[in-house]
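Q: Please design a sequence for this.
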């Protein structure tokens, strides 16, 4: 994307980078009142007399990098490395290294997505020296894609935004960061790891887990023949809804990690804002007949009265129909990367972190057996055919948090809160980051 970023990293970003970690942690607060805002009721009634000023590209690039920049290779230093090493390290931990959390954000100028998965690694520690810090500028220029003009269309009332957040959410001058999670790829991978006892990675001794459908009388999830032939152990029962809930809960933690990293970076840079829910994910993702939201595609199925978010066409698509003809093709696509050799990985321009020869590492890497792959395809096809969706009991695309950033109106905090409500970085933010800008009154006299 084009931007007004400088060619080098200016002093204010270097200062934010060197802000003490524990000061950022202990100083993190929810700071909601920004320039141009108004609180019309309650004990803190206040109207800002300054116009809203949105984050510039440099401020946005810093927050985007804190959540999604490439940090180096994933080590995968375990007895059974698996395919996880063939992924790219990010500031937040990810289930099985898939990084199926995609960061979207909106501001006064548009709606954007951060295609962080497109960045390659160059060394063990991507940000090892002070000069390396300039990589966040290239990351922002190259991997932030504008997908809509203008601020995200989000109704400022129910059911889009809950009443307690309507006064502050998505207002002029704000930037809302929205981590969106796709659970389908990791669900396919965890079903493979739990079922394929021959690979032995998660299944352990005695065969793979026998996944059963607890919503339909505990019947087998299309996997009875694999229990009959010994691939699965019928005594190791695992219910489908529990498995899907376990996987989804773990993956939603990725959005919490990303949001917390943004919040800590805001503290270091002196930017206001906070991490919160208080909105309808369905409205934010897919909108209403009169509100576009993020514009995600939804499908309808017979097992759920509500529409199901499945992806944003060409931008972030789940591993399930309608983006694949069937779940069999979706399974092949989901596990394809994990089966490449280390030579293949390096041929893509990627970096390996270990000293072991490629052949030795590949020999110790757990691969899916042909039977395991077919078993997983049968299970996933059962889920889709039975429920009309994949997963069967959870949405394929989910979001649960906003991380909103804005410039604080310090007059509000001086008037309504005790000293210490904001830090020196907030007090000096405009002098450091916007030296050539001036406040403008928002009041109409």
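A: Design:
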């Amino acid at each position: 994307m084009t931007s007004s970023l400088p060619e080098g990293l200016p002093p204010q970003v270097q200062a934010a980078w060197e802000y003490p970690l524990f000061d950022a942690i202990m100083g993190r607060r929810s700071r909601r009142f920004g320039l141009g805002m108004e609180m019309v009721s309650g004990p803190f009634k206040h109207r800002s007399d300054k116009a809203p000023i949105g984050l510039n590209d440099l401020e946005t690039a810093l927050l985007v990098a804190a959540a999604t920049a490439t940090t180096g290779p994933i080590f995968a230093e375990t007895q059974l490395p698996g395919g996880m090493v063939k992924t790219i390290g990010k500031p937040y931990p990810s289930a099985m290294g898939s990084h199926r959390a995609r960061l979207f954000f909106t501001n006064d100028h548009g709606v954007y997505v951060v295609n962080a998965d497109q960045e390659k690694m160059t060394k063990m520690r991507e940000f090892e020296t002070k000069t390396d810090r300039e990589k966040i500028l290239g990351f922002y220029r190259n991997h932030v894609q504008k997908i809509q003009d203008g601020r995200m269309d989000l109704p400022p009332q129910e059911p889009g935004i809950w009443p307690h957040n309507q006064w502050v959410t998505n207002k002029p001058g704000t930037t809302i960061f929205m981590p969106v999670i796709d659970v389908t790829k990791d669900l396919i991978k965890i079903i493979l790891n739990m079922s394929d006892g021959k690979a032995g990675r998660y299944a352990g001794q005695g065969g793979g887990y026998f996944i059963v459908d607890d919503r339909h009388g505990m019947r087998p999830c299309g996997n009875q023949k694999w229990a009959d032939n010994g691939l699965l152990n019928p005594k190791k029962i695992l219910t489908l809804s529990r498995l899907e809930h376990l996987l989804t809960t773990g993956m939603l933690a990725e959005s919490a990690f990303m949001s917390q990293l943004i919040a800590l970076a805001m503290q270091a840079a002196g930017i206001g804002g906070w991490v919160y829910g208080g909105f309808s994910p369905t409205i934010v993702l897919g909108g209403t007949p009169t509100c576009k939201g993020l514009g995600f595609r939804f499908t309808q199925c017979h097992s759920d009265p509500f529409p199901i978010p499945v992806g944003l066409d060409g931008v972030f698509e789940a591993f399930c129909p309608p983006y694949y003809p069937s779940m069999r093709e979706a399974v092949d696509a989901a596990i394809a990367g994990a089966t490449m050799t280390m030579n293949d990985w390096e041929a893509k321009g990627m970096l390996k972190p270990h000293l072991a020869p490629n052949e030795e590492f590949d020999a110790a890497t757990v691969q899916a057996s042909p039977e395991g792959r077919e078993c997983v395809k049968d299970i996933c096809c059962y889920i889709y055919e039975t429920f009309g969706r994949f997963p069967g009991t959870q949405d394929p695309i989910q979001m649960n948090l906003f991380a909103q950033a804005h410039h604080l109106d310090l007059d509000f905090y001086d008037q309504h809160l005790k000293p210490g409500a904001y830090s020196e970085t907030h007090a000096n933010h405009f002098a450091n980051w916007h030296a050539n800008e001036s406040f403008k009154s928002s009041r109409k006299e």
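Q: Thanks. Anything notable?
A: Residues 185-246+296-396 form one domain. Confidence is low (pLDDT under 50) at residues 440-445.
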